[in-house]
Design a protein that fits this description.
With 340 residues, the protein is an all-beta fold. Helices cover 2% and strands 28% of the residues. The longest helix has 4 residues, at 90-93. The relative contact order is 0.15.
């Protein structure tokens, strides 16, 4: 709340502001580049707002240096108000305020300087693994999954997107969130289908059959999860015998080039690893084409921090003790999708 004292001549002397427990909110004005930050104390029916115009402020654009605005005109003012009734954000966000709301006290700044800073405080790919757990510079089995503390140099698939921003860390077209049960790589139950020591979310060949997971998307729909050639309930990318003929897929690589897709003993157009009988063509056909990678979405949290310094209000303010007032911060979360 606002701490004030009254003089004999009726002037209000501001001594301090107390809005620490109130949420910082933002509305856009009716004019171009017009904004208002505000905090409302519903207990005492009071609010403080900062109205300003800025062609460079955007709550999702990082500021290289603070945006500094002088509080010396009607377009840039710090305003304290007391009301006869409880107000909501509609009071500041609607063009026409509620007619039932009356301002009983008002203080308007005549000088000061606002400082606005926008920064990114969090980025994550929402892949089921916390960003801090995607530092893979140490063994994933190690409980100290944080490694060297630097997430930017951890890029398992070398696609230029660090794991903590990459929804598909190994670029196998299976989302990391799918490849990690319980959303926790530190959990002993994380998936490692081929038991090679590399969990599926970091393994390009999840079942260790010599065919990369991304190449087991036979219908080219962008996900290998629904491709099950032998209809045994296990998708090919997790099945080390894709046609269930008793011969492991990795052993059907006849020419030993670590890829069974080009081995077709009976020349029927069906690779042996998908052909239950290499003398006929009863098995499903295989296009041999590699599906495209998934688009990547990063959830980014931008934080706006607002302070107003050297505040002076109209009237006598000799006893004002909060010349530098911090509005606190407001976070804005957005999703940014880019093609991989």
């Amino acid at each position: 709340m606002l701490t004030v004292v009254s003089c004999d001549d009726g002037d209000i002397i501001v001594t301090s502001f107390e809005f620490d427990d109130s949420t910082l909110e933002l509305c856009r004005g009716s004019l171009l580049n017009e904004f208002v930050f505000f905090k409302i104390n519903t207990t005492t029916n009071e609010a403080i707002s900062y109205n300003f115009t800025s062609p460079i402020y955007n709550d999702t654009t990082v500021t290289d240096t603070p945006i500094l605005i002088d509080l010396e005109n009607d377009d840039n003012q710090l305003v304290y108000r007391q009301f006869n009734n409880t107000v909501t954000s509609d009071y500041y966000c609607n063009t026409i305020p509620d007619s039932d709301i009356t301002v009983t006290e008002e203080l308007i700044s005549i000088s000061g300087e606002a400082s606005i800073i926008v920064e990114i405080v969090d980025e994550d790919d929402n892949d089921g693994v916390l960003a801090i757990n995607e530092d893979v510079t140490v063994n994933v089995e190690d409980e100290d999954i944080n490694g060297d503390g630097d997430l930017e140099n951890d890029d398992t698939d070398n696609d230029g997107i660090p794991n903590y921003k990459d929804q598909d860390d190994d670029n196998d077209n299976v989302l990391t969130s799918v490849e990690i049960p319980n959303n926790d790589v530190t959990d002993e139950s994380f998936l490692d289908t081929d038991e090679d020591g590399t969990p599926n979310y970091l393994d390009e060949d999840d079942d260790g059959d010599g065919i990369k997971t991304i190449n087991e998307d036979l219908d080219n729909d962008g996900s290998p999860r629904d491709d099950d050639s032998d209809n045994d309930g296990i998708p090919n990318y997790l099945d080390n015998d894709d046609d269930n003929d008793g011969i492991l897929t990795i052993d059907e690589d006849i020419n030993q080039i670590n890829d069974a897709r080009d081995d077709d003993t009976d020349d029927d157009g069906i690779p042996d690893y998908l052909d239950t009988n290499s003398d006929n063509d009863e098995a499903p056909s295989f296009t041999g084409e590699v599906s495209s990678s998934l688009d990547n979405t990063v959830i980014t949290t931008f934080r706006t921090t607002l302070t107003v310094n050297n505040i002076l209000f109209g009237g006598s303010n000799d006893q004002f003790t909060d010349e530098d007032f911090s509005f606190g911060f407001r976070d804005q979360e957005i999703s940014i999708t880019t093609p991989k």
